[in-house]
């Protein structure tokens, strides 16, 4: 009996040992594999590095069952002269009474709706281990890169001077004044000399010009690149398009509403606060003021940017059911993102607006759209809004809650990752165009050779 | 001592038991996870199902560290009436003296350069476990689908009748004659009734029309869809484009050259065999015949399709350094793919040619391009070819060897997978357009609203 029991024990022990060994080996192997897979998760396997990698890569671990490379989209961050990055921040400070600093790279970007250029730049500067879920990985050898990021702070450069620079004859004064124009020209001179810029005529470069007027002197020279812009208000169809470029959101400046969905604490039906007078499409604003000023449950106020007005806007957006988003000088406005994070249903009156991340966001689920002709008809807009049920408003709010992370630049899985994902999606077409241009036949006098995607059949028809 | 040993044994046994339990649980969990991850490998994580999945998916295992869904691109295969698939094969047989068959689904597609429609259809019919490395996964519930594949054999339908159908008054004869036109119309009638077709005006549908004349009656009604075509020779810019559509290769009809790279067994400098007389861009053929017929080391022969001429073409392509690829009635020709699998460097004289998979294939590395004006100058083409070194030819051959799997429809990691990868890359822009059309403002009389990618700066300039 004792021998039998001992034999049983020994058999059990051996079995356990084998199992344990298997457990340890297996656990080790799978966690290694998982680690490798994890790195590949956020990246599109559908990118064009496949061919070259497949033939040159030593990294056979990173090949999947079909032999395809799982390499991420590789981006090279240009080491641009600090004049074009931190130097712009310094000048922005100096123009507001600040002093030059000993180490410009210690400077932080001033809070602003055009902060995308800061967030994207600093994201790429972070160690790769902190860039979780990013669709692009930074490479330090340009030869490896699929794409090239050029981090010129073009939007901040535009507003360094609160007003136009003085043109007086006082040399001393002129020297101190910052010139966006000069900076743009110096930037282009620098960029134009870069070998990788010349290699594909800039097609594989990513350039940010978030303010609709940013880089205005250079657009024709950088139009081959993937542009990160807020809208196409100042850009012609041959300069920018939904196919080539990425629409990026403004940083919201209103605090995120942290409460739950609901209409009980939102007594105001429609809220707007902002500049009444705007050019071009923004002329609708004055018309809307005339129509809406006398309406019940509507707060519509003319106001310019200040700490006080931002406080009032925050209160208004957090306590209203709908927030009016009329066009500004150009179709986009940061108010849309303020509305979304406030869970205040955007009422968009901007006929040519383009919206960020529209492949993953169905804006008809979070916003109400009016064409400007209909919106300018007395009574039309308000009667439509009054007919929207509480349940429908809650649906809009629910959807906004789901998608608002896309508009949070500071969210580790927010705007920055989404912009890179959008950029990485451009790569196949960019690679196609680069390869195609090496062999395509052109004749002098040919029309530009364009590939287009057109929309002319559906959508909201304006009632003229 | 005995007690001590027993205690030790019991402790060991318990430890082993715990380890074993851990092993089993861990192994189970990781293999489940690995299985799921494996399925996600070939698929782009950068697709637009992210939002909806994230909010509705129960499948939390399929979320990565950043919370993004790893769902593949999901494609629904329409169960079209057999009239539009196997029925076309049957009619093709009948028109050549065959008999109706009891079970049409037993039929195999006749060997032909337009076999893509057969390979794509049968690929989707295979069990998912055999579809290794595919960028799309078939779903059986259309509600889950990102894209919809419509498997009408439009190219075979076009050539069911070797000649135009009889128009005599003999009713019996007319009844037997197949009509591509009628089939196209019946197909459109069927497609137009499908709810998912109507939902997004066909934008998320994938339709194959490989022969440049296939579906010619319907193109304007299916132009919103992703079209799989050989070239844009018969298509206007508003019907098809590199942005929306996918260029698919013809099936090569010459056997693959299985030998190594080298020029020793390739005594002929330039080879061509095919129809001398073609319309439109193909008029270059007759000019090239006139120039090249008298050249040394050149074999240029007029020939039409037959078993005999295919044997001669195989021999010619396998024993020549360069193979001429002039435009046909439309810019593309199956000869290009015959050349590549023959390791015979293609000499492409076709100004408007579009090439398959150009995001991953740099054709300037595998082929020589001449604009037709230069190629038609006596002596020009031959003097250029004669100056190409042996080393350069070996480079071309080496590259062809690397990429030829892209032109092998029967390779499990060949053309079919690559076409699906190209299709899946269209999804973000398709989703964007679908979402955008729900809210975009149109005015009657507006110009079509187009997003384009243009090329007008580089490439080979024609020397007029």
Automatic annotation (TrEMBL), chains A, B:
Swiss-Prot/TrEMBL keywords: Glycosyltransferase, Golgi apparatus, Signal-anchor, Transferase, Transmembrane
Coiled coil: none
Membrane topology according to the record: Single-pass type II membrane protein
Keyword Transmembrane: yes
A single Gene Ontology CC term: Golgi membrane
Main location: Golgi
Pfam families (UniProt xref): Exostosin_GT47
InterPro entries with a match to the protein in the record: Exostosin, Exostosin_GT47
Subcellular location: Golgi apparatus membrane
GO MF term (any one): glycosyltransferase activity
Domain Exostosin GT47: 71-384
Keyword Transferase found: yes
Similarity remark: Belongs to the glycosyltransferase 47 family.
Protein name: Arabinosyltransferase ARAD1
Organism this protein belongs to: Cucumis melo var. makuwa (Oriental melon)
